[in-house]
Amino acid sequence: MSxxxxxxxxxxxxxxxxxxVLRSGVAGGVLSTIAVAGAAGPxxxxxxxxxxxEMPTLTSGLVADFARSAEATQRVANSLxxxxxxxxxxxxxxxxxKKAKAEADRKAEAKKKAEAKKAEEARAKAAAAExxxxxxxxTTLSASSSSNSGSSTASKSSSQATGSAAAVLAFAxxxxxxxxxxxxxxxxxxxxxxxxxxAYRQIGVDLPRVSQDQSTAGTQVSLSNLQPGxxxxxxxxxxxxxxxxxxxxxxxxxxxxxxxGVVKKSxxxxxxxxxxxxx
Length: 279
Description:
Strand content: 15-25%
Radius of gyration: 62 Å
Largest sheet: 6 strands, antiparallel
CATH superfamily of the largest domain: endopeptidase domain like (from Nostoc punctiforme)
Number of helices: 5
Number of domains: 2
Strand order of the largest sheet: 6-11-7-8-9-10
Distance between the termini: 182 Å
Helix content: 40-55%
Number of strands: 11
Shape: rod-shaped
Structural class: alpha+beta
C-alpha cells in the first residue's frame, strides 16, 4: 500500500459544468450562439457539456415576400369580385333587354291585329253598303220592268220564260251587279261558268263547272231558234272560253268580266258563237 493512500486531498471537489447554447439561424448560414454556463471555484479549463437548439429566424426579405404574396392574393380577390359584379350587371341588362323586346313585340302584334280588325270591319261595312245598293237597284229594276211590260225587254223575257227556265232566269236576274272574279262561285262574286252552274242547280240540274264542258252539256241549237234558259257559249263547242244564259227578247245574263261584273246585255252587244239546250 502506498504511503499516501490514506491522506485526504486538500483539493475541493470539482463541480460539473454545463453549457446550454441556443443557436439561432440567420440569413447567409451564420450562426449566433448564446451560451449559459455555470461554474464553481477558480477559473480552470474544465470540460464543458454543450446542448444546441436551432431556431428559425424570420428575415426582412421573407417578411417582404409574405407581404407581396398577400397583396397579390388581395388583388386577385378584388379582380374576381369585380368580374362577378360585371357578369351580374351584364346578365341583368340582357334580361331587361329581353323583357323590353318581348313587350315591344307584344305591343306591335296587338297594334297589327287592331289595324287588321279595323280594316276588316271597314271592308265588311263597304260590302254591306254595296249589297244594299245592289238590292235597291234590283228592286228598282224589277219595279220598272213590271210597270213597263209593254215595251221593256226584261218584261218580254219574263213573259216568255216559264217553268224551270223561269226559275233559272230568276236566279240569274237576282245576281245582276255582283262582281266578276275568276274562280269565284258566289254568293256575291262569280265567274261566267259558276253563275250558269249555280242558276241551273236551282232546278236540280248539275252542270259541269267550266265553259268548255258546258258548251257540250246539252243539245246544240241554232242561234235563230233560241229559247229562254238556253246556254250560250263563245268559242267552239268543247273549247268555249265563255258562257251565259239566254234571257229571251234578244238578251242574255252573264258574268262578263272584272270591269262589267254580272250584266244583262243584248246579243248584239257581244254575239255568241253557239248555244245548247238543257231543258
